[in-house]
Design a protein that fits this description.
Layout: H1 5-13, H2 24-42, E1 45-48, E2 51-54, H3 63-74, H4 80-85, H5 88-101, E3 105-109, E4 116-120, H6 123-138, H7 146-158, H8 164-169, H9 171-181, H10 184-206
């Protein structure tokens, strides 16, 4: 579980200094997209005319992934984008519960409002996630496996774990990595763009424009 793609994505979204995840809504989309992508790479989901279709492959044995697979199956047929947006916060919370139970996260409180946050118990996992990202962006493409390529492409699309400036700087390489990542990355990009447009519309409406 700690080496699953959603777990790796979670640690990538954490503050590099060992702090909690930032931009929680973006991180939730990243984790959900990483979990869906993990199922694609394992052969439990496939693309069927732009929809996420469960296959007859055996369950993964990972509670988070198998719960997500059951959710996709229950709502099939559904577009990849709908599969990402539905239940993303529940997926994030479930992952935090699992990582905490495994001793990989510990509870703390935020400096502002003293809200409960989760901190990596071992900052090495955060450093490892960023090292994997650097490897995906700089190593020969033949040396980058599909999960690591997906991690980089999803981070860029979600806005969690990679800055926009870095994503622009590595745009050509990310386009190559996306080819290895499966059908989820374009859907994630659309989901993030949709959220951004909704926020802009809400702000414009609230300002009386």
């Amino acid at each position: 579980m700690s080496d699953s793609l959603p777990a790796r994505a979670y640690f990538l979204a954490c503050d590099p200094g060992g702090g909690p995840i930032s931009r929680r809504s973006n991180a939730a989309l990243l984790v959900r997209a990483a979990a869906v992508t993990d199922l694609v790479l394992r052969g439990n989901l496939r693309d069927q005319r732009g929809h996420a279709e469960p296959t007859d492959a055996a369950p993964t044995g990972d509670l988070l992934l198998d719960d997500l697979l059951a959710d996709v199956r229950a709502h099939s047929p559904a577009s990849w984008r709908a599969s990402l947006r539905r239940g993303k916060n529940d997926t994030l919370q479930s992952l935090e519960t699992q990582l905490s139970a495994a001793g990989l996260l510990e509870e703390g409180s935020s400096a502002v409002l003293h809200r409960r946050v989760f901190l990596p118990s071992d900052p090495t996992r955060v450093r490892d996630a960023h090292a994997q990202l650097d490897h995906a962006l700089t190593a020969p493409l033949s040396e980058v496996d599909a999960p690591t390529a997906a991690l980089a492409a999803l981070a860029a699309a979600s806005g969690a774990g990679m800055s926009r400036s870095d994503a622009r700087h590595h745009a050509d390489r990310l386009a190559e990595l996306e080819k290895l990542a499966g059908p989820v990355v374009p859907a994630l990009r659309k989901a993030v763009a949709g959220r951004r447009a909704a926020r802009i519309a809400a702000f414009s409406g609230g300002s009386g424009g």
